[in-house]
Amino acid sequence: MSENNITTTIITDGFYRSVNSIRYMFHAVKPSEVLFHNVNEVPDFVNPCFPLFATLIFLELGVKLVRRENIRLNDGIASVSAGLVQQLVAQLTRAFQLALYLWVHNRYRLVDLQWNHPSTWYIVFILVDFAYYWFHRFSHEVFLLWWFHQTHHSSQEYNLTTALRQGVLQHISSLFLHLPLALIAPLPTLLVHFQFNLLFQFWIHSEYVTSLGGPIEFLFNTPSNHRVHHDTNSYSRHSNYGGTLIIWDRIFGTYVAEDRTLEKRYGILNNQLVSTFNPIWIQICFLVFGAKKVYHCPGLGNKLRMLFKPNNVRPNSKLVNAPRPKFDPKLPAFMWVYTMFELSLFLFGFEVYISLKLTAFLNLLSIFLLIFTLICVGCFLDDVPYAPVLEAVRCVLTVFTVMIIFPDFLMIPCHYCSSFFMSSWVFSLSITFHTM
Predict the structure, then answer these.
(1) How many angstroms separate the CA atoms of 32 and 192, rounded?
(2) How deeply is 287 buried, as exposed, middle or buried, from its count of CB atoms within 10 A (0-12, 13-18, 19+)?
(3) Which residues on neighbouring strands pair with residue 220, listed in sequence order?
(4) Which of 181, 230, 313, 430 has the fewest CB atoms within 10 Å of its CB?
(5) Of 124, 103, 106, 133, which is closest to residue 42 (Cα–Cα)?
């Protein structure tokens, strides 16, 4: 095949993948396209959408540049990093989640829905969205679950990167709050809708899409509806929990329309807890804060009541309106160049990782290395003094891991990837020792 044909094939394939990603995001598929009999047949719809996510994020950045709006690139990187950590940890829990759901479905299901019947597709769509509404609502209105969910609301920005800032610990509550669906819904169909529901919620994290009006705003979750959900003004607290559909909020009395006359204030009221871009601390800081509160609460009964008591007390208006300065350390230009370079290396490594079938040990080692790389990125963005030391450790760990997974990788003198890897590692070390 000639180089022109290869280039054309790559472009065509990329175009169709982008079109399909958009179709999946908006559920614009025929049921017959995505009905599967076996769990192993269900494809990963989320990771192939990352190029689309990246394209839309860069377009949003372009709009901000044209409008000369403030861009907090560090916050966007932290949001993406938190989402990537969540995806990596999910690899470790996926087998258990699927096994538990199948066990309940096989033993206790109430009905037998035909996996290849179109009605199954629509029934499971409604069930998944309905379950998501209650999962999301409980995640806000029960203290313990709110500590799991606060990661998503911890950014003081509202943009497409915010959609990717997902909590690792939410997998625990999500599993058990969606488990009742096992009484009805076949797992392959549920997995498809679960992914589509997640993809749909990417585009609604935007300030540039105004009210869409009419039946769209009435039936569906939209950027206008979801901005209210993320706003910390008193009028909008505990509202608009829907995933794809907003009708559940209208039915159960949690719908609030957007007030465009009020200035939005995103984030959480105690944003000082998350004055960092370290993706691990972003994930666990609220749980640590909650654990301290429970520890200092006298009596076992009081501790348990604190975990599960309603989180529906309206805060003092002074707290709502208090100044909340944004954490924004200033870095020299060369450190920004290096941070973006390291992030590019991570994305390259992530793509390699998801394409490999590894043993349990190598899988854990790879996940640890990838997460550790994101921690290093976050520490550089935080401008903490120990960041260069962590980076030096990461460089050594990277060589160690790659040599284990690919024993002959560095032994091929002219191999493109080998040359790229070695040069990047030398560059990483030089920057590390320059900043120490």
Answers:
(1) 12
(2) middle
(3) 245
(4) 313
(5) 124
Judge residue 38's burial from the number of C-beta atoms within 10 Å of its C-beta, 0-12 exposed, 13-18 middle, 19 or more buried. exposed
| HSE of 155, CA atoms in CB hemisphere, 13 A | 28
Distance in angstroms between the alpha carbons of the first and the last residue of the chain: 50
Side chain identity at 193, as an amino acid letter?
Answer: H
Q: Which of 351, 28, 39, 79 is nearest to 200 (CA)?
A: 28
Helices (H), 182-299: 187-203, 214-219, 223-230, 247-252, 279-295
Residue 211 makes CB contacts below 8 A (sequence gap 6+) with: 217, 222, 224, 258, 260
Give the separation between CA 165 and CA 298, rounded to whole angstroms. 34
Coil, helix or strand at residue 32: helix
Phi, psi of 242 (to 5 degrees): -60, 155
Question: What confidence tens digit (pLDDT) does each residue in 384-422 have?
Answer: 999 988 988 898 888 888 888 877 655 544 444 544 454
Q: What is the largest CA-CA distance in the chain?
A: 75
Residue 79 near residue 377 (C-beta atoms within 8 A): no
pTM (two decimals): 0.89
Residue 321's CB: how many other CB atoms inside 10 A?
12
Long-range contacts of 213-221 (CB under 8 A, 24+ apart): 217/246, 218/246, 218/247, 218/250, 219/245, 219/246, 219/247, 220/244, 220/245, 220/246, 221/245, 221/246
The one-letter code for the residue type at 239 is S
Length of the chain: 436
Per-residue pLDDT tens digits for 153-189 = 999 999 999 999 999 988 888 888 899 999 999 999 9
Taking 3-state DSSP, the helix, strand and coil percentages for the chain, each rounded to the nearest 5, stand at 70, 0, 30
How far is 107 from 127, CA to CA, in rounded Å? 20
